[in-house]
């Protein structure tokens, strides 16, 4: 048998244990002394102040630094790889404090409307860091349909026979997410806006492209991308998806040839459309910072143009 004092003490201890467990689960914290809670508040405030005042680079704080493989070397600069070589953009950026200037001409032989000419496809890329570049460019097109081959997905898919002129400025940024590391591919995101500077179209559109790929030991490159863009045709607003993949193989020290597939598919358009293309090409490095190249292609279905060709150059300095 328990004495009354032992019985009362057991009740008080049991009551205290219950209140302690309640405090652990956030139900009642009255057992924590006031000065201890104030101490916790002070410690939390000091931790926040230390985080806000620390000199952590923005890209590290928000996780924008790309993953660097152990074999990557800053001192050894890679050869120039432009975005105009293929419909699929490169996974590389311009490089820290480097400029890249690109220009090209495209001819598109449309099936049922007048042919399209696209030039100068002028693009200036400026490297802010190894992982980030800014870009701005301008282009002019004239013909029966927009150019689907220069990487700027058109809103006009060429269903009318009128000859139209259009020019627009484009601008954006390219962010490297990760370098290639083993079987994990290198990856990049490209965000661009397109604002008309001439022609009947006045709507500004945007596109977002996720690019990933691998580079082999002998210089082979296999890149793929998925591109999303907004578009419109008269009063019809819709989206466009454009998947692509390209295999580039070096031939000697200066030549590189490639074969590519890309498609352009409307989403939410009143009259759905899809275009499929196959495109081989080649480019030649005059120096490590100067290249010229050309590519041709054929539409694989009736809605795609029958043939296209593209020739251009790129210069890094």
What CATH architecture of the largest domain do you see?
Answer: Beta Barrel
Mean pLDDT reading? 82
Distance from first to last alpha carbon: 94 Å
CATH superfamily of the largest domain: monomeric porin ompg
As a percent range, the share of helical residues equals 10-25%
- The helix tally amounts to 3
CATH first level of the largest domain: Mainly Beta
Q: Categorize the overall geometry.
A: globular
Unreliable residue runs = 10-65, 67-75
According to CATH, the fold-level topology of the largest domain is Porin
Radius of gyration: 29 Å
Write a concise synopsis of the structure shown.
With 317 residues, the protein is mainly β.
Can you tag this structure with a few keywords?
single chain; mainly beta; Porin; twelve-stranded antiparallel beta barrel; 3 helices
Please characterize this protein's 3D structure.
Mean pLDDT is 82; it is low at 10-65 and 67-75. This protein has two domains: 4-53, no CATH class; 64-316, Porin (Beta Barrel). β1 and β2 (116-129) form a beta hairpin. It has helices spanning 4-24, 34-53, 58-61; strands at 99-109, 116-129, 132-143, 164-178, 186-198, 205-215, 221-233, 236-251, 255-267, 274-287, 290-299, 307-316. The chain is built from three helices and twelve strands. The termini are far apart. With 317 residues, the protein is mainly beta. A twelve-stranded antiparallel β-barrel has the order 1-2-3-4-5-6-7-8-9-10-11-12. 14% of the residues lie in helices and 48% in strands. The radius of gyration is 29 Å and the shape is globular.
């Amino acid at each position: 048998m328990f004495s009354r004092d032992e019985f009362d003490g057991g009740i008080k201890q049991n009551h205290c244990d219950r209140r302690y467990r309640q405090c652990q689960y956030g139900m009642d914290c009255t057992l924590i002394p006031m000065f201890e809670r104030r101490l916790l508040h002070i410690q939390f405030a000091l931790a926040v102040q230390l985080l806000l005042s620390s000199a952590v680079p923005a890209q590290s704080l928000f996780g924008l630094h790309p993953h660097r493989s152990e074999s990557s070397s800053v001192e050894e600069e890679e050869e120039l790889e432009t975005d105009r070589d293929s419909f699929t953009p490169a996974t590389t950026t311009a490089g820290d404090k480097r400029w890249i200037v690109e220009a090209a001409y495209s001819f598109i032989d449309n099936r049922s409307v007048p042919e399209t000419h696209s030039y100068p496809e002028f693009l200036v890329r400026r490297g802010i860091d190894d992982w980030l570049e800014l870009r701005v460019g301008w282009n002019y097109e004239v013909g029966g349909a927009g150019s689907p081959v220069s990487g700027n997905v058109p809103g006009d898919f060429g269903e009318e026979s009128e000859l139209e002129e259009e020019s627009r400025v484009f601008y954006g940024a390219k962010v490297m997410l990760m370098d290639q590391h083993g079987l994990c591919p290198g990856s990049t995101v490209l965000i661009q806006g397109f604002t008309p500077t001439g022609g009947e179209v006045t709507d500004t559109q945007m596109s977002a492209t996720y690019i990933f790929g691998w580079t082999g030991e002998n210089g082979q490159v296999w890149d793929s991308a998925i591109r999303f863009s907004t578009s419109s045709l008269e009063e019809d607003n819709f989206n466009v998806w454009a998947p692509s993949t390209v295999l580039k193989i070096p031939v000697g020290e200066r030549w590189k040839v490639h074969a590519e597939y890309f498609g352009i598919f409307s989403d939410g358009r009143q009259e759905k459309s899809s275009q499929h293309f196959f495109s081989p090409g080649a480019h030649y490095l005059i120096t490590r910072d100067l290249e010229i190249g050309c590519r041709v292609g054929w539409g694989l279905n009736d809605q795609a143009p029958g043939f296209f060709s593209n020739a251009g150059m790129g210069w890094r300095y």
